[in-house]
Amino acid sequence: MIAVLLIGLTSFSQSVCDSLNILNVNVDAFNENQLNISVLNENTAEIFSYPGFRVYDQDNNLIGEEEVFFFGIGGESTHAVFFNSSIFGFNAGQNYTVRLELWVNFYDSLVCEFEVETILVPDPEECVPVLFNFIEFSQQEVSYTYTLFDYWNNVIEEEVLIFADDVGNITRNICIDASCYTLKVVSDQIAEESNMVINLVADGNAGFLSETLLDDQIENELEFSLWTDCSLINSTENLNSIEFELYPNPARDYLFLNLSGNDTQFKISTVTGKTLLEGNATNLKKIDIISLAPGIYFLSLFQDQNWGSKPFVKY
Question: Alpha-carbon distance 232 to 238, whole Å?
Fold first, then answer.
């Protein structure tokens, strides 16, 4: 099972590690046997030569060890630790505490230890795993603020990314609803020094998207959708022969129908066609949608040889 971790951390008393911050720890969105550790080093005088992370569980058992391939840690970098998920797994809805050890010089010396308290986000079966890969080609240190908005302009994620000089590469894994989004990136540098490429990889048919987001400009936006047609979100057009009213839309707990005729069956399905709820509908029928995860769905009605369908949003 894929799970994403949000962290709170406590570092041990190690002056050499005071400038080293653990930003994010998560199970990879596409590999349940990979733990990603995002690290920011704010001290350019200490690069932690040939580093490697070891991860231990709450019982002090070794979960996994990073294969050393970084020359050092400068600015932000993401480190992958592979583990056997059949022996140890991070399950959604559970809390974990793990201990990180940072070794240098191909595991010759232990220099830092961090205790990480983890909280898992909802089950990814109810959302879409997404990986953002930010690549920066500036010849100097540069930072960006990236903000992810949903269709209704609510902020889903926001963070300042700090790149070291030369080429920087930062990845983020999140799990979000099948819906429509806008990714906004703003640079702190002048236009001619801003050059970022964003790669977006999503589970399912969202596929892979690569786009130069900032090129000779300091602000830009990228719109993308996951498993849905954005034009359908606020659509009130009756798609076929059964006339009915559906309200409220968006809805949180219940849907109400106003339709004529008897023996009308309803079905609620995902944008990929998977049926989640079904039953009988009558005039002013109230349908319980509390069990549905937030997202976009279709309500279909069947009456004799006729049918009708409308999209709705659960929030």
Answer: 11
